[in-house]
Design goal:
It is built from 18 helices and eleven strands. By secondary structure, the chain is α+β, with helices and mostly antiparallel strands. The chain folds into four domains: 4-140 and 213-268, Nucleotidyltransferase, domain 5; 154-208, no CATH class; 287-404, no CATH class; 408-448. α9 packs across α10. Keywords: Metal-binding, Zinc, Zinc-finger. It comes from Physeter macrocephalus (Sperm whale).
Length: 456
């Protein structure tokens, strides 16, 4: 039966949740509405701003996740702000109307919803307006940021231009003042070809109403907010977005929620003030210490490197200063993660990293600089090749041009694609694995020829 696993999981829940579902003619899960008692309580406390995130699975079914948002919400933990899960039978006006009506039926506080945040691809706005007539519907800052990131990658811009745009976007999202938004708008107008500029909808940056719903956050709060939503989106995609079976995807997601429900305790005891944090084992570095370490790194870069080399590395350091980084030590290598990009650093001299910047230019990249900053170390002369050391008169253009390699470019692109495909194959069901493997098998044979077997 389609819901056997889901029902077994719900039996384990000590507080019976709301579960409404609809089966298709083939006894497959066609529509679903789910809300635990805890989720219902969270929404009752924070109904003013509703954030809607959509996740599609390989078969086109969409999971709507409703989350609470706004200045009063200080819940910690992955999906702690999620208050409702729904899968409409069809993503049309009728299907969404049924979904929203079910949500309203079990959540009387819906009448206090003032703002609803959605993604740019959400087109059924009349359905929202019909069911929430007093609420204002706005694009969310998070979804706009993800939209711009996706467009930057799709446009196949030159790598330096892409890096500048991504860095500027991240900085602006963490400090969405009118001036910063105008600067980003101008930068897009300058860097993006005029024919492609309309695809970006850069006018969103000048819509002050959108950013008023986000601007109250400080830089640190904005960074924490975006990272939290990034993790939430990743979890939803990992469990629901990669699984063709709706019931299996929801079962995995709900099991994850049960196993990671640490946020319930803090909520039931009352919310902590925004500035209060539980004590941790490791005390964070004070801002003065961090600034001193970064200043020493800058000094060592300027003292050891040529001007062009220092210019490139200081650009990498600027990204480090504006980012949150996670550092995990292994036996021989150090794993550095800045936002979504994870690379492996070899700390032994000469230091190296798996990222494109280090592989192409053999210069200390943001990941190596993060390692130095965390260890309170500075750059050493033996960490970079001779042509980059101070005293060499080569210009930036000469060195960058000489270091570019089409073969390396292709090698890194293939390596990244191979790793991504490998991850997808490892984390899918056996049925999906066989289907994807068969597709790859046919593609490989079509390239090599029908008479040769290609080892995948």
């Amino acid at each position: 039966m389609a819901l056997t696993m889901l029902n077994e999981l719900l039996i384990e829940d000590p507080s019976p949740p709301l579960l409404l579902y609809q089966l298709s003619k083939t006894a497959q899960l066609d529509a679903l509405n789910y809300q635990s008692c805890f989720m219902q309580g969270v929404f009752a406390h924070f109904p003013e701003i509703l954030f809607i995130h959509r996740t599609y699975n390989p078969r086109g079914k969409v999971l709507y996740t409703f989350l609470v948002d706004g200045p009063r919400v200080q819940l910690e933990g992955h999906l702690a702000r999620a208050v409702y899960f729904a899968i409409p039978a069809k993503e049309d006006a009728e299907g969404l109307a049924q979904m929203f009506q079910a949500f309203k039926k079990f959540n009387p506080a819906w009448e206090r919803v003032c703002t609803i945040l959605v993604d740019p691809h959400f087109l059924l706005l009349p359905a929202l307006a019909m069911e929430f007539p007093t609420a204002e519907v706005l694009l969310s800052a998070f979804h706009i940021c993800k939209f711009f990131q996706g467009k930057f990658y799709q446009l196949s811009l030159e790598q330096p231009v892409e890096r500048v745009l991504l860095t500027s976007l991240q900085s602006t999202m963490c400090s969405a003042t009118a001036g910063n938004l105008r600067k980003l708008y101008t930068l897009l107008s300058t860097c993006i070809p005029p024919a492609q500029l309309p695809e970006l909808h850069s006018h969103w940056l000048l819509n002050d109403r959108i950013w008023l719903a986000h601007r109250w956050r400080s830089r640190a709060e904005s960074r924490h907010y975006f990272q939290g939503l990034e993790v939430t989106a990743h979890v939803l995609s990992q469990f629901f977005g990669t699984t063709p079976s709706v019931e299996k995807g929801m079962t995995a997601l709900l099991r994850y929620l049960q196993q990671n429900s640490g946020g319930k305790a803090s909520f039931s005891l009352g919310l902590s003030p925004p500035n209060s944090h539980p004590p941790s084992d490791g005390s964070p570095e004070s801002p003065k210490v961090e600034q001193l370490v970064e200043a020493r790194i800058q000094y060592s870069l300027n003292a050891i490197c040529t001007g062009p080399a220092a210019q490139l590395c200081l650009g990498e350091l600027a990204v480090v200063q504006k980012s949150t980084h996670l550092i995990g030590s292994g036996s021989e290598k150090v794993n550095i993660q800045i936002l979504e990009d994870t690379h492996r650093v070899q700390p032994q001299t000469p230091a190296s990293c798996s990222c494109y910047f280090n592989q192409a230019f053999h210069l200390p990249c943001r990941h190596i600089l993060t390692m130095l900053s965390a260890r309170r170390q500075v750059l050493q002369p033996d960490m970079l090749p001779a042509e980059w050391t101070a005293g060499c008169a080569a210009s930036l253009g000469d060195i960058v041009g000489s270091k570019w390699s089409e073969t390396l470019d292709k090698h890194l692109a293939v390596a990244l694609l191979t790793e991504e495909v490998g991850q997808l194959l490892q984390h899918c069901s056996q049925e999906e694995f066989e289907r994807r493997y068969s597709t790859l098998r046919e593609l490989a044979d079509s390239w090599i020829g029908p008479y040769e077997q290609v080892q995948l």
